[in-house]
Write a structure and sequence with these properties.
Blueprint lengths: L7 H4 L1 H4 L2 H34 L2 H23 L5 H8 L6 H29 L8 E6 L2 E6 L3 H26 L4 H19 L4 E6 L6 E6 H9 L5 H11 L6 H10 L2
Antiparallel strand pairs: 1-2, 3-4
Helix pairs in contact: 4-6, 5-6, 7-8, 9-10
Length: 264
């Protein structure tokens, strides 16, 4: 009977093999894996840069991002039914509330994607490097880089945060000086509002206007904006944004009573 020869270095290399050689082999394998990962990353980055160098690549990427953001917004806050869809629901044979919500959701996502696609193409044509037009919103020492279409909303948010933080503190100082609380709050509100408006965008107030397809911005000086805010003839879309900056105006009691009773 022949003898059975077992090569333990092959059967149990961790125990009987050359540990130094095993270590070197493991390191080489790890380096190879790392190089493969780097190659894949570099390839993906090169493809992305190539896509972003073309108008179609940029517009497609912008549309994908806008659609994803709109879908995420809908998951968080729901999908409000617009007037056109509401009319379809109430007409004979119209969609159910679930179908109408789904259809409205798809319409909103498509609209946002289309808007972003057009904005990206215009940004590319203007020679800009960014995917979409951006602007810096600054107020009260705080800066935020946002999409140009969101500048108004971002400015309003920053204004609201600073306003809510500062008014109670300033009101306390007026109360300490002997004013009653209502008067102190009104005085503090006026003071903070004045300073915030003065600090916003270098003395100018910039508001987004348009329907999304033909959108843009309009700029007012502080004085012009305040006059527009007080003017009852100012368009509702502008008035709503100015209310978020200057605050909701108090209506005379008679006008308030009429609106409450007659709904207009």
């Amino acid at each position: 009977m022949g003898r059975l020869h077992l090569d333990l270095t092959k059967l149990m290399p961790e125990t009987f093999g050359d540990k130094d050689a095993l270590r070197k082999a493991a390191m080489a394998e790890e380096l190879q894996r790392g190089q493969l990962e780097k190659n894949r990353y570099d390839l993906a980055k090169a493809r992305e840069e190539q896509e972003m160098s073309s108008p179609s690549g940029r517009s497609t990427k912008a549309a994908e991002i806008a659609a994803t953001l709109e879908q995420d917004k809908q998951r968080q806050f729901g999908t409000p039914i617009q007037e056109g869809m509401a009319q379809r629901m109430t007409s004979a044979g119209g969609p159910s509330i679930l179908d109408a919500t789904r259809m409205q959701s798809e319409l909103d996502v498509s609209a946002k994607a289309g808007e972003a696609r057009r904005a990206a193409l215009m940004n590319f044509a203007a020679g800009e490097k960014s995917l979409l037009p951006t602007t810096t919103v600054e107020m009260g020492g705080t800066k935020q880089n946002v999409l140009s279409t969101e500048a108004g909303a971002a400015g309003s948010d920053m204004y609201g945060q600073i306003y809510k933080s500062q008014v109670p503190r300033l009101a306390d100082t007026y109360i300490a000086e002997g004013y009653d609380r209502d008067t102190a709050v009104r005085m503090a509100s006026a003071d903070v509002r004045k300073e915030l408006v003065k600090a916003s965008t270098g003395g100018k107030i910039i508001l987004p206007v348009g329907d999304g397809v033909n959108s843009g911005t309009i700029s007012y000086s502080n004085e012009e904006a305040e006059r527009k805010w007080r003017d009852p003839q100012t368009p509702k879309a502008i008035k709503t944004q100015l209310n978020s900056i200057f605050g909701q105006q108090e209506e005379p009691q008679a006008a308030s009573w009429i609106k409450t009773r007659l709904g207009r």
